[in-house]
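tool=predict chain=A
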Amino acid sequence: MTSTEGTIRLTTAQAIIRWLANQHIEIDGREWRLCGGGFGIFGHGNVTCLGEALHGAQEALPLYRGQNETGMGFAAAGYAKAWLRRRFMFCTASAGPGTANLLTAAGLAHANRLPMLMLCGDSFLTRLPDPVLQQMENFGDPTFGVTDAFKPVSRYWDRICHPAQVIQSLPNAIATMLDPAECGPAFLGLPQDVQGWSYDYPESFFARRVHRIRRQAPDAAEIAAAAAALARAERPVIIAGGGVQYSGAVQALTAFAETHRIPVVETIAGRANMLATHPLNTGPIGVTGSDSANAVAERADLVLAVGTRLQDFTTGSWTAFAPDAQLVTLNVGRHDAGKHMALPVVGDARLALEALGDGLDYAAPQDWVAFAQAERARWDDYVAANVRPGNRPNSYAQAIGVVNDLCDPGDRIVAAAGGLPAEVTANWRTLQTGTVDVEFGFSCMGYEIAGAWGARIAQDEQAPERDTITFCGDGSYLMLNSDLYSSVLSRRKLIVLLLDNGGFAVINKLQNNTGNASFNNLLSDCPTIPEPVAVDFAAHAASMGARAETVANPAELAEAFRRAQAADTTSVIVMQVDPHEGWTAQGHAWWEVGTPHVTGDDRVRAAHDAWEAGRARQRRGV
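tool=predict ok
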């Protein structure tokens, strides 16, 4: 490293790390380093140059050693969610399979609109040693390789072919990750030779910079049109999505709903926008929702969707609303605001809600509010009975109820994929806003532990006295459990509820619900498994350094949970749950899945006919 007046000679890798270390962000009047550090696994494609640069920046950018690259990406996503997209982590992987392993995590970050920076090794730019170890050769296009596979799952993509390119590429990547409308993962391919090439960078490039996330004001004409539509409504409902939290609009949403007396329903990503006890909180909506929210949604004549991309689990594949209901969307993203012939308001959720409320002399009719509250009361009664221990064989809902009763209101709850997202969404009673992370944008098995590890890192920066609690099924645990070891090594305490139902039970449930016989989902129904072998999950978790115990029932789970709360290290609590009788039976909207139009099985044919009958309410739109 040398310098002359006004410039400093650095390698490409050194410049990237030096620049990242000098980026900061202002959050609620306090400045933080924008990048919280990174997750890394070294190989020949990133250890000699990027590894050298990271070694010298350990204090500014701590590097967490991952166990596999997919888990690293999930951890980075969990970290970004916990920071409400205002800070991010980078992931570095070697060329070849190490980089390819990040593809699933990039898809998760893209679907959930989460910032994550990927710094991945790539083949030599000179091509002099080709073909090299782990190179994916494309015979007709030598520039096309593994890193190109990240283009559809990245919001920003670049391959650094010269050291000077980072002067433009890095700011562009950060601008994308911090843009409320364009937010998502950024990918930089770093050819192995270019990482070590040097360049005389202007010293001004590395000056300390403080970023602030832009708030886009809504268009006055769009606000006026939305206000006019709302003023005509007799049965309005607000759908609160994850964007409400990302824009810091939780209080604005609550104030708007209270002022105009409008029932609020929550999406999966928007869980914990309102406390469970708020009189206008009508419950979660959709396929994994509540009878209360779905009853209100299907009768509403105006649907005000705030900060949601209106995924099919929210809309019941567009059957959850009356066909003639007016859809008004408040969203910072033009793409999301314009869905299904909606009346769009493009802008920041908080600013849009405040602007929409200014001068709006409107309150929903009292009988409409009373209807929503009566429906919510009935749903609360159902949930109370549903989570009660002893009401049936061990279930997800019972475990959720135990944790809900014993956890601190500020503890962070994590779930993803399988049956647990539906069960948590339906049965969890929000104790404090912004405390629930149910990853269902990509519905990614394996996020449960890795994502919780990333969330725990973020939580230690914000509220270290709180716990990070993750609900994990046996299928997800077997798919990706190694970051349990990461949490132990890094002393980032997790409480893992490992609920074992003997396979992929929620897909078996879907299989059965569509008339199909159980096949290849539960271990007991796999024809290639002559005799299932039970996994000793507690022993496995203990072998990675976690406290682990197996409990027989919810009462024992409660005692084990108290011990986990008192412990200073990661704990795993294993309980078997029933794969057939343990499900939440109410609260579901219609969901479109492909069923066979031709079959020789009468049960499959009958299920197909019944499923198709639900299509009658499907809203036509684009």
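The mean pLDDT is 96. The CA atoms of residues 395 and 522 lie 16 Å apart.
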